[in-house]
Amino acid sequence: MKLVFIGADHEVTGSCHYLEACGKHILVDYGMRQGSQTYEFADLPVPEIRIDYVLLTHAHVDHSGMLPQLCARGFGGQIVTTKATADLCSIMLRDCAHIQMQEAEWKNRKGKRSGEKTHAEPPYTMEDADAAIRLLTPCAYDQVIDLCDGIKIRFTDIGHLLGSASIEVWIEEEGVSKKIVFSGDIGNTDQPLIRDPQYTSEADYVVMESTYGNRYHAKPDVPVDPIGSLAKIIDETLGRGGNLVIPSFAVGRTQEILYFIRHIKEAELVKSKPDFPVYLDSPLAVDATEVFKRNIEDCFDEEAMELVRKGINPIKFPGLNLSITGEESKMINFDKEPKVIISASGMCEAGRIRHHLKHNLWRPECTILFVGYQAEGTLGRVLVDGGVEEVKLFGEPISVQAHIMTLPGMSGHADKQGLIDWLGGFEEKPRKVFLVHGDDESVAALSETLRMEYGYNSYAPYSGTQVDLATGKLLFEASPIPVKKKTIAALSGVYGRLVAAGKRLMAVIEQNQGGANKDLAKFADQISALCEKWQR
Fold it and tell me: Are residues 451 and 524 both part of a single domain?
C-alpha cells in the first residue's frame, strides 16, 4: 500500500501520482509539463506496460496530455474517468497530438534551412492518441465503483472544468483499510455554467492541489464583476478601432467567455459597436462547445439550466463566427472591422493564437486580454508580467504595443480561502495532507497556514517521495533536483522512445518468468537476432 509522487510537485503542470496496492499499479493523472520546468521528475516505479489503471481527474493537458505516450510505451489498461472528461479527451488528445506533430515538422523545416543535422520528434503521434482514447472508460459522478479486488473508487464534482472530479480511493489490503482522496484541481466558486466544488466527508490521506495556495482572487470587500469588466474592455478597444484578442483555453474558459458575451450583447453593454462580431478561432474549442451541450444535465449549474429551460443556448448569440479551417483563420486578420478574437492556446505556447498575436500585438489600438493562469516560462506569462518591448513569433521580432490586460475574477482554480474551505469539508481532519500542483511559494505558504492556523498535518513532497499508506510513514523523502534542459530534450526525442522500448522489453521478459522452456528459448533467439542486427 504505497503512494509515490511523480509530477507537479513544487510545480503546477505535469500532474502524476502512483499508487501500488492489492497487487495493482495505478496512476492518478499523467499530464504534460508546460512552460519552464524547475525540478526533475522521478521515473515511474514500474514500466508503462505494468500499469493497470489510470484514474483521470479531468481533461486539461497538464493532467491528461501524456496519456498517448503512456500507450506508446506499452500501457494497455483502463483510463477511468467521468463521462464528460472522456468526451473532452476524445477531442483534446487528438488536438494535442496534431499540434505537437506540427511543431516538430516546423522545427525540422527551420533546422533544415539553417543546416542543422538534429531531427525533432513529437513525444507521440496521432495513432498513440487514438490508442489512449480507445482505453477511456467513462463513469458517472457519485457512483462507487469496484475497480478490482480490494480497491473501490468514486468521482465527485470538483467544479474546475466540465467533468472535473476529485477521486476517492478505498483500499483494503492484508486486513488494513485506508482511504485516500485526490482533489484534482479544485474549482473556484460562482463560476458560470458549471457547479461549485462538492465536498468530501472523510479520508485518511488527502493529496491536494495548491495552485493559489498563497493568493486570494480578490479582496473580501471588493466585488468582482467579470461581465462588467469585459464589457468595458470590449467597448474601449473597439472604440479605438482595434481588435480584442483573447488567448483562451479551448475547454472551459472559452465557453465561459462566450457565456459572458451573450449576456453583454443581450444587455447592450457595449455602446461603441453594439453588434460587434466575435470569432471563435479554434477547432478544438468548437468541438468542446458541442461537448458542453451534450453534458448539460450532469454538469451545468442552476443559473445555466434556467436559460436552457427557457430554450436559450447559454453560449450562443448573434454575431458569433466559428473558424474551422486554416483559410478561415487567416481571413480574420485581413478583415479590418474591429472585432473580438478568441483563440487557443491560453498560454500562447502553440496554436492559432500565435498568428493573431503576430498580427495584433504591434498595434497600440488593440488589446490582448488574458483570462487564465499563465505558467512560468510561457509567452503568456512574459506578456502579463510586462517590461518587454518585443517578442519573437515564428522567428520574427514583434513589437509589444497593444494593451496587455487580465480579466479579474476568471480563475478556474480555488484561491487560498477556497482551498481551505474545501479541506474544511472533511468531518474529521485527515491523517495527513499532501500539497501538490503549486510552485515553491504556494505550497510553502499553504502548508504553513494549514499547520499553524488550522492544525493540519501538512507536507509538500518533492518528486520521488514515497509514502507507506498503511503506517503513514515516509519510505523515502526525495530532495529537489534542478531540471537539466538536455534531459528534457532527450526524453522527447526518438532516443527516448528507444529507451522506453527497452524497458518495455525487460518488463515482458519478467512477465514470462516460469514459462515453457520451448517458448522462452524462441523468445531469447528473437531478441539475440534483433541485437545482432543493431549492434555496432
Answer: no
CA distances from 499 to 88, 495, 496, 526 (A): 31, 6, 5, 19
Which residue in 165, 169, 136, 168 sits closest to 150, CA to CA?
169
Q: What is the mean pLDDT of each run of 10 residues along the chain (536 residues)?
A: 97 96 98 85 95 97 95 96 96 88 80 77 91 97 97 97 96 97 94 92 98 84 80 97 93 90 95 96 88 82 86 89 91 94 88 93 97 84 92 93 90 92 97 97 96 97 97 95 61 58 74 81 83 74
Tell me, what amino acid is at 4? V
CB neighbours of residue 340 within 10 Å: 27
Cell of 376: 512560468
In-domain check, residue 522:
yes
Report the alpha-carbon distance of residue 190 to residue 515 in Å, rounded. Answer: 59
User: Quick one: 137 and 13 in the same domain?
Assistant: yes
User: What's the domain range around 357?
Assistant: 226-406
Is the previous residue joined to 345 through a cis bond, with omega within 30 degrees of 0? yes
Residue 234 burial (CB count, 10 A)? 27
- Are residues 512 and 474 both part of a single domain? no
Instruction: Say what the pLDDT of residue 476 is.
Output: 97
In this structure, what CATH number is given to the domain that contains residue 397? 3.40.50.10890
Q: Are residues 416 and 451 in the same domain?
A: yes
The one-character DSSP state at 48 is: G
Looking at the domain assignment, is residue 221 inside a domain? no
Q: What distance, in Å, lies between the first and last C-alpha atoms of the chain?
A: 44
Q: Count the domains in the chain.
A: 3
What's the CA gap between 151 and 20, in Å, rounded? 11
Mention every residue, 6+ apart, whose C-beta is less than 8 A from residue 153.
55, 80, 144, 145, 147, 167, 168, 169, 170
Distances (CA, A) of 534 to 522, 523, 527: 19, 17, 11
Domain identity same for 267 and 361: yes
The pTM of this model reads 0.83
End of a domain among 369, 386, 406?
406
- Please report, for residues 48, 278, 399, 507, the alpha-carbon distance to residue 503 in angstroms, rounded to integers and kept in the order given: 8, 50, 47, 6
Q: How far is CA 373 from the centre of its chain?
A: 11
Residue 126 lies in a domain: yes
